[in-house]
Amino acid sequence: MSTLLEDTTVQSTSVPNNLLAGKTGIILGVANKWSIGWAIAQSLANAGMRLAFTYQGERLKENVEKLTATLEGDIPLYPCDVTDETQVDDLFKNLAGDFDGLDCVIHSLAFAKREELAGEFVNTSKEGYLLAQEISAYSLTAVSRAALPLMEKRGGGSIVTLTYYGGEKVVPNYNVMGVAKAALEMSVRYLAEDLGSKNIRVNAISAGPIKTLAASGVSGLSNMLEQMKEKAPLRRNIEAAEVGDTALFLASHLSRGITGEVIHVDAGYHIKGF
Ligand code: NAD
């Protein structure tokens, strides 16, 4: 695991430092410094957004505490395992005590059992299928619903989730997670329609493969990274900071006309038919 992650760097970005001044956001899905959620946090914080974070269980609390201590200001942290609906509801009730409304939700989380992310999809268990759907797809709907009152207080906002190409096309070993990402991407569209009249935009970023804890659970990650370098129009892999900056765009007024969209940050890989 550590060797897999050793050469991954998350670069800080240079963007206007007041683009998100006065705005508030919450990030769900930081496990460690390689998490895409953490790269997004850095982009948003650099642009002036006031952030809160969740952690999944006590095991990850210290990691998130240490990381957020490097950001400026008081950063509220809350426990949130999305399989527990009470925790999701409590999260936004507690957040209401710390933030006067919410402009942005970053949903950067997913899970499937390791054994479902190798071999043939036909062998997926019912339990593994439902678990992947619950955590990786349904949670976006539950979180969006719970966040609504706080976002309405600000007259609207932006919800951003993370997806992957394996939700559009068959990618070896991505299996049950591909099916969950397809459900997630469709949820983005239905949520965008429902919440649009409240001026809440819902979009997804489809990121190219990046070495993270979650990605290391997918068998053959190194092959995916090699393929990207060979085939993607930009002939390279992407960095988490590039996803962070796209989330910054989606969180800002610059993207005010965009909702229900899946934006690919994948060096162009998804356009290739050969
Ligand atoms: P990561 O392991 O750093 O983050 C995954 C997060 O999901 C962790 O913080 C974990 O605590 C959280 N999580 C899992 N189960 C949860 C639960 N029950 N309740 C609450 N949180 C839970 O990995 P990452 O690669 O940064 O993943 C973030 C998102 O990006 C995921 O949706 C992933 O599918 C997506 N994504 C990743 C890649 C990639 O190659 N790394 C590519 C495209 C999309």
Characterization of this structure:
With 274 residues, the chain is an alpha/beta fold. It has a single domain (24-264), classed as Rossmann fold (3-Layer(aba) Sandwich). Helix content is 41%, strand content 14%. It contains eight helices and seven strands. Strands 3-2-1-4-5-6-7 form a seven-stranded parallel beta sheet, with helices on both faces. The site of nicotinamide-adenine-dinucleotide has 27 residues, from helix 2 and strand 5.
Question: How much of the polypeptide forms β-strand, as a percent range?
Answer: 5-15%
This entry's quaternary arrangement is single chain
CATH homologous superfamily label: NAD(P)-binding Rossmann-like Domain
Strand order of the largest sheet: 3-2-1-4-5-6-7
Helices, by number, come to 8
Enumerate the distinct ligands.
Answer: nicotinamide-adenine-dinucleotide
CATH class: Alpha Beta
Q: List low-confidence stretches.
A: 1-10
Helix content: 40-55%
Main β-sheet, in a few words? Answer: 7 strands, parallel
Identify the CATH architecture.
3-Layer(aba) Sandwich
Counting structural domains, the number is 1
